[in-house]
């Protein structure tokens, strides 16, 4: 049975999190509205703006719940365990209020998992009350994420696992992000799931030279402000920039002509949620190793005059300066910014920033390499950030774990590493001769560009998600 315009009217997309930081659920909403012609209600927390295509779509309606406040530091430690019980209770009743009262009755609920508690319980109850179908989109397992902080042997983790499994089996249908997760759900959970690989939407694409220049002009001031007293970007001769706003670290505009600078830094982007499942120290150590190895290879003399020293580094000498732009928000961001400020780096600079949803694809499409530190609490999910990078034609160096090869093909669209030393080796190999003679980096980029046109989110959703949603709605209404 086809999902047609006149057969049913509404879907509800449920996220117990920041909708602006839930790209896959935003894409679900867009596909439900544009490909299935449904009215879509998104129930989620606010915080970060979703993409403009979601915000401005006439058939998508966003309902922002009030987010649970951060745990007050003044609360005595003896009372903090009570929050583990009280917080999900408050979230449960808030979800029920929105799902059963605030939004019109949907034909199907599509819920992001994790978090599992209280989300799956609330959505299952709401689907029963409103006689709606109930579909889970499995991004990962909630109990494995909880185990990162409480440990695998915690009773809370065991209870969480039981709730996640029992209510997961009550869904009318399931989607998941990898074949490895599909196998785990089938073999150990008794759940049949359809694989829907993450794919970037059309607005993730390589940036044009004009788009790069405009972006770099917009963030140039932030790039020139170091965390420590000086680094390889802030020590450039800056007199020309004061008089010419059309010159950036990467580009130059003369009249209508824009060109990339021959001695520009190599731009490396990493997106992180600044959480324990992404060990950012690996990247810091690899950057420090690159800095020291290049300095030793070129016999650089620390005793040279500062102006001569920085000008020679700016010149390249086979190995470029590396600029790491780290995007994202999260609890460990401040800790790592303090560590960055203490590093004594000559050829490497770090900047952290949060970009608007429309600017993030432009940054990826303007970069030379992406780095992914995602390790997966379950070992069964794939990082959406790598999908976005591939959509923008950006090759990737990613942490190796059990199912990452479902996404990253070594020596075709990226490389895998298991240690900071291995990542530093990859930087040395990929950026030697940058920007003109780095053949390995160019080969990976060509591999990404060759594969990005073969499939996209719309075709994946049409082939895998739409038939499942059509089926569960039909069965639920029969």
From TrEMBL:
Membrane topology: Single-pass membrane protein
UniProt superkingdom: Eukaryota
Pathway: Protein modification; protein glycosylation
Residue span, Glycosyltransferase subfamily 4-like N-terminal domain: 36-193
GO MF annotations in UniProt: mannosyltransferase activity
Keywords, alphabetical: Endoplasmic reticulum, Glycosyltransferase, Membrane, Transferase, Transmembrane, Transmembrane helix
GO cellular component: endoplasmic reticulum membrane
Compartments, record wording: Endoplasmic reticulum membrane
Protein name, entry field: Glycosyltransferase subfamily 4-like N-terminal domain-containing protein
